[in-house]
Specification:
Layout: H1 9-30, H2 36-41, H3 62-65, E1 85-86, E2 91-92, E3 96-97, E4 99-101, E5 104-106, H4 121-131, E6 173-181, E7 201-205, E8 217-222, E9 227-233, E10 252-255, E11 276-281, E12 301-303, E13 309-311, E14 322-327, H5 333-338, E15 342-348, E16 380-388, E17 410-413, E18 416-417, E19 419-423, E20 427-434, E21 443-447, E22 450-451, E23 454-459, E24 462-470, E25 481-487, E26 496-501, E27 503-504, E28 513-514, H6 517-522, E29 531-538, E30 541-543, E31 551-553, E32 577-585, E33 612-616, E34 621-622, E35 628-633, E36 640-646, E37 654-657, E38 662-666, E39 680-681, E40 683-685, E41 691-696, E42 703-709, H7 712-716, E43 720-725, E44 739-743, E45 746-750, E46 753-754
Parallel strand pairs: 1-19, 2-8, 6-9, 8-15, 16-20, 19-29, 32-36, 35-43, 35-46
Antiparallel strand pairs: 3-6, 4-5, 6-7, 9-11, 10-14, 12-13, 14-15, 16-17, 17-18, 20-25, 21-22, 21-26, 23-24, 23-25, 26-29, 27-28, 30-31, 32-33, 33-34, 36-41, 37-40, 37-42, 38-39, 38-41, 42-43, 44-45
The structure holds copper (II) ion.
């Protein structure tokens, strides 16, 4: 076992003992036997979020902690060495065709699935119950058959959660997947132990238990082909069967696709074991109600599968590419995503086709491949960077006992530790996602300890106007996506190039700072994730993943290009109004407003306050309550400028806005890098004491969305706020929507409160003057 240089074995034992004590409480918390608020009440947390040193719980004593960023003994490696196991691609999913029968989407018969409908089966469940008042739920054909309690579909009943614009974006393809415990014999590395069924939860293909799969899934979508993703919750109904952390309830957020609130997975609509939830991913191109309404512009399009295009309405400058989807169960997101509840989703369009040969004046021909009409991934590779920690037996380990964040000591790619990938001497595109809980990263490429230049082409899934030449990436916060193109043609077969993390981080608050490439390649004791995490081996031939059996040779000409212009700039204009949103700590109790009940979960009698808060337009600070609207957007299409402020200098927050991307305009007193200036983003690192201003507008859909810190530990305690988008006139979302309250017996609704400072209909303070 690894021993910190200055730590005695007794201190390690002490830390291990503390870990066990803490794990007991984590388990009780995850089982719902105690709440986080009770932990505050007992004094195990303080208002500043620090764990008090009592009851043998504190493993953060400098002697034991200084060398191990997880706050516990380092994850044992069982002899696993880096770059001995092959790279694993994300698990590509195959879509099923759907047909339209009287407005219902019909799966192929072989799938054996009930049709997908505009209105949830929860409504059928309610209707049957109303028509048969004497019958028990066990006789209701629309029930959850696992528990005989509540409906089979978790989506709430009625028009409020009916799929918006269903006919207009009728789903053409479908996926059936299950949130499941991990299948047998799967591990992060061949030398590391197999994960127990309750240690890792992820999505498996089809409907079944124990089919969770490593690596997590990849879905390829295209504009003009709406998707119906049906997710079964196949976790055990016993909340205790969770390996000590994680909640067996689920809502899937497709970050940052343009979907109705009912499919955004963050409207307080988690669903329970035994139920499914139909998410309709509409592939809607933003501004379709405002610009290019008749779909005449060729660039606003998706591939038709036969070399042509399907034109769609909307603004082609807002086409999206690299995205991901993950669980968003309020108050349990960190544990659940860490456990593996995420996938990546690539959207393909006319310009960003995933085909490097097709020439039609629209296709950019970015590195990808040629064998498929669209969506080639032979030379276009998803890399999800995810830090993990394990206990002494090698099982996935999580410690919620810091409200500052949890960082692992094993930096994995696609949940694989230290893989090597064979590449041809040609151009590759990499879609890099930071899927950690609390860890920031900063990546570079190293050949012979020298930085390898590359091109930056997309930020958070949005093409930049011109490619940007870099030697290292900017810091990358949780949920940020950077797409880069690396040209391996300057290397020879046999050369090895490394993807390297330069950024040291030893607690959840913020990174300590970046190291030089040379220092990082050497490695440091205080943060084992600094250093190389993926090895590229330049080889003479590779097997295709797009067409099984095909072999690509290094002698084949690389026809891909990185054009000097990738898209066009969206102008910054005078806004209809401005908003200021400050993210901070709850230390100043006098500035806090009442939080009411912290829907969902928290008992009303629980004592006040979570450590993290959000303040709108200078008024009171609040922690999250799903039944409170902190910011209301009154009318589709109105352009606003928002400023996010970091309330302090001791931490950083990657802040995520659901549903829309903002154009980054200003960084206050800080500098603004080329990769961010006037670039569209959906996650902004605020920087310590920093700020950011961006231009934003919403449209097409309405309902309840959220804005939050994507350090998911901060998010869970409870740096999150509800934003309410009022939709088009004549839709149920044109008015403020009720708050769904999911339970095992079905969903009920409550009427939300609205903070006046967040509602421009009632206050002038938000006016742009
Ligand atoms: Cu944060």
């Amino acid at each position: 076992m690894y021993l910190p240089k200055d730590a005695s074995r007794s201190r390690i034992r002490e830390a291990q003992k503390a870990r066990e004590n803490r794990a007991e409480i984590v388990r009780a918390l995850s089982h719902g036997q105690i709440s986080r608020r009770e932990l505050f009440k007992w004094g195990l947390f303080t208002s500043s979020g620090l764990l008090l040193w009592k009851n043998g719980l504190n493993v953060y004593a400098p002697s034991a902690y200084g060398q191990v960023p997880t706050g516990t003994p380092r994850s044992p490696l069982f002899g696993a060495r880096k770059f001995t196991q092959p790279f694993r691609r994300l698990s590509l999913q195959t879509p099923m065709p759907l047909t339209n029968l009287n407005g219902e989407a019909v799966f192929p018969t072989s799938a054996g699935e009930p049709n997908a409908k505009r209105v949830s089966y929860h409504q059928d469940f309610n209707d049957f119950k109303a028509a048969n008042p004497g019958l028990p739920t066990s006789d209701n054909p629309f029930r959850n058959k696992l528990t005989d309690r509540g409906p089979m579909e978790g989506r709430p009943p009625g028009e409020l959660f009916a799929h918006q614009r269903w006919d207009e974006f009728f789903p053409k393809v479908g996926y059936v997947m299950s949130l499941s415990e991990i299948a047998a014999n799967q591990s992060f590395h061949p030398y590391l132990p197999y994960q127990n069924r309750s240690s890792v939860w992820t999505y498996g293909t089809g409907k079944g238990e124990l089919i969770g799969h490593l690596p997590p899934p990849l879905i390829k979508g295209r504009y003009g082909e709406p998707i119906l993703t049906r997710i079964y919750n196949k976790l055990q109904d016993d909340v205790k069967q969770n390996g000590g952390f994680g909640r067996n309830e689920h809502q899937l957020h497709f970050h940052n696709a343009h979907n109705g609130a009912e499919s955004d997975g963050a409207s307080n609509v988690h669903h329970f074991p035994g139920t499914f939830y139909d998410y309709r991913w509409s592939t809607t191109l933003a501004r379709r109600d405002k610009t290019n309404k008749n779909a005449t512009i060729k660039k606003a399009s998706g591939p038709d599968g036969n070399g042509g295009l399907v034109k769609v309405a909307g603004d082609y400058r807002e086409l999206q590419g690299t995205m991901w989807a993950h669980d968003h169960r309020f108050f349990f997101t960190a544990e659940n995503v860490y456990k593996g509840m995420f996938m990546m989703v690539n959207y393909y369009s006319g310009p960003d086709r995933g085909n490097e040969k097709l020439t039609d004046g629209v296709n950019l021909k970015l590195p990808s491949g040629t064998l498929l009409d669209w969506g080639n991934i032979d030379f276009d590779v998803n890399l999800a960077i995810h830090d993990l920690a394990t206990d002494p037996t090698g099982q996935l380990f999580f410690d919620i006992f810091t409200t500052e964040g949890f960082i692992g000591d094993l930096l994995c790619v696609n949940m694989t530790y230290g893989p090597f990938m064979e590449v041809l001497p040609r151009k590759y595109r990499f879609r890099i996602l930071n899927s950690c809980m609390s860890r920031f990263i900063k990546l570079a490429l190293s050949w012979n300890w020298t930085a390898v230049p590359f091109q930056f082409i997309c930020n958070d899934g949005n093409l930049v106007v011109n490619p940007i030449d870099l030697l290292e990436l900017d810091e990358q916060g949780i949920a940020e996506r950077y797409d880069i193109v690396v040209d391996f043609s300057k290397f020879r077969v046999g050369d090895r190039v490394y993807l390297v993390n330069l950024l040291k981080q030893t607690d959840g608050r913020k990174p300590n700072g970046a190291l030089s490439l040379r220092e990082a390649m050497t490695g440091i004791d205080s943060d084992p994730t600094v250093g190389p995490l993926l090895e590229f081996r330049v080889v003479g031939q590779v097997n295709s993943v797009d067409v099984e059996g095909y072999v690509h040779k290094s002698t084949t000409l690389d026809k891909s290009v990185v054009p000097v212009t990738l898209t066009e700039q969206i102008p910054v204009v005078t806004p209809v109004r401005t908003r200021v949103v400050e993210f901070g700590r709850s230390g100043d109790v006098t500035s806090r407003g009442p939080d009411g009940q912290c829907t969902p979960d928290c008992p009303e009698t629980a004592p006040e306050f979570f450590p993290w808060t959000i303040r709108v337009n200078g008024e009171n600070a609040h922690s999250f309550n799903a039944n409170r609207i902190s910011l209301l957007y009154p009318k589709p299409g109105e352009i606003e400028h928002w400023t996010y402020i970091n309330g302090g200098g001791g931490w950083d927050h990657p802040i995520h806005l659901h549903f829309e991307e903002g154009i980054t305009i200003d960084r206050g007193l800080g500098s603004i890098p080329a990769t961010e200036r006037l670039v569209r983003k959906d996650v902004w690192r605020l920087r310590p004491s920093g700020s950011v201003t961006f231009q934003i507008q919403f449209g097409e859909y309405g309902g309840s969305y959220v804005n939050h810190c994507h350090n998911t530990v901060h998010e869970d305690v409870a740096m999150l706020m509800r934003i309410q988008l009022l939709g088009n006139p004549g839709t149920p979302q044109a008015a403020v929507t009720l708050t769904p309250n999911p339970s095992r017996d079905g969903v009920t609704f409550t009427s939300p409160e609205i903070l006046p400072e967040g509602d421009p209909r009632t206050t002038q303070t938000a006016s742009a003057g």
